[in-house]
Backbone:
């Protein structure tokens, strides 16, 4: 029996997208990639075994599944709603999966717009940063039609470990919003624990070892704190993108009358980082604000 592998288009090969597309290509799928900077996509042909495309239309025209992970909601609008965008260029019946952290309202809009053109669309933002992308251990939060989730689940399983169907269109983005609320507090708290330890004369590595397995333990302490201690501020997750995420959450919270005081405080800290010129550092770079 001949097994026909589905064709995949991948839009956006940044810090996380390049690794995620690579996992699919190495699993035997025919993967075509598009990136706004063509050279980035072209460089991956030999590295991860994909085919670079010069336009979205060229990438998606005969794809069965389309994945996207870009920077901002405006980028999502452009790649989905433009004349050369996914919705107008994809074949009928294709399933498009947006993994960008974006607006729940936009996710809902794209879902319904896709219906008009016969293109199925899901919102499935991820969490885990560059480490999760490289190790295929991402958390994936999916919104859309349940039958589409069931169909795409084997591909999600190549990229992630904690994969959850959250409900209808926009539910994935709402779940990621909750994730970012929790992440905001955990990240700032980890940084302040290190700052405090240094100020009072504790060895910060010993301090982290002492608290990591107790009630204060977190992903941030295990994974991000070592980067802080080694002055490694390379972006696993850009500060500018974290600010974007928190601004989306704040807008959603304001619209439903919820005041998120911790999130707003942390958003203020990271806005300061942007104003200081650190927007392209990783989120662990927040400690530099305390050293000013």
Residues:
């Amino acid at each position: 029996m001949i097994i026909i592998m589905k064709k995949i288009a991948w839009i956006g090969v940044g810090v996380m997208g390049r690794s995620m597309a690579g996992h699919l290509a190495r699993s035997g799928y025919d993967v075509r990639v598009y990136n706004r900077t063509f050279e980035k996509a072209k460089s991956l042909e030999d590295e991860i075994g994909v085919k670079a495309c010069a336009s979205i239309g060229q990438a998606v025209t005969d794809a069965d599944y389309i994945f996207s992970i870009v920077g901002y909601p405006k980028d999502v609008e452009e790649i989905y709603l433009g004349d050369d965008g996914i919705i107008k260029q994809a074949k009928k019946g294709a399933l498009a999966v947006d993994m960008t952290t974006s607006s729940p309202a936009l996710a809902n809009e794209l879902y319904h717009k896709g219906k008009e053109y016969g293109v199925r669309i899901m919102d499935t933002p991820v969490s885990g940063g560059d480490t999760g992308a490289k190790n295929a251990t991402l958390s994936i939060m999916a919104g859309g039609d349940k039958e589409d989730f069931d169909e795409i689940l084997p591909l999600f399983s190549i990229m992630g470990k904690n994969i959850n169907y959250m409900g209808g269109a926009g539910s994935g983005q709402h779940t990621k919003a909750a994730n970012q609320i929790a992440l905001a507090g955990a990240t700032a708290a980890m940084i302040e624990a290190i700052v405090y330890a240094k100020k009072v004369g504790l060895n910060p590595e010993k301090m982290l070892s002492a608290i990591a397995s107790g009630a204060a333990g977190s992903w941030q302490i295990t994974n991000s704190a070592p980067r802080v201690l080694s002055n490694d501020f390379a972006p696993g997750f850009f500060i500018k993108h974290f600010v974007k995420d928190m601004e989306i959450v704040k807008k959603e919270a304001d619209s439903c009358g919820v005041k998120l005081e911790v999130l707003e405080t942390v958003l203020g800290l990271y806005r300061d980082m942007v104003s200081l010129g650190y927007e392209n550092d990783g989120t662990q770079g927040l400690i530099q604000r305390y050293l000013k």
Remarks:
- The domain at 174-290 is CATH 1.10.1040.10 (N-(1-d-carboxylethyl)-l-norvaline Dehydrogenase; domain 2).
- Strands lie at 7-11, 30-34, 51-52, 65-68, 95-98, 120-123, 126-127, 138-143, 160-167.
- The longest helix spans residues 171-199.
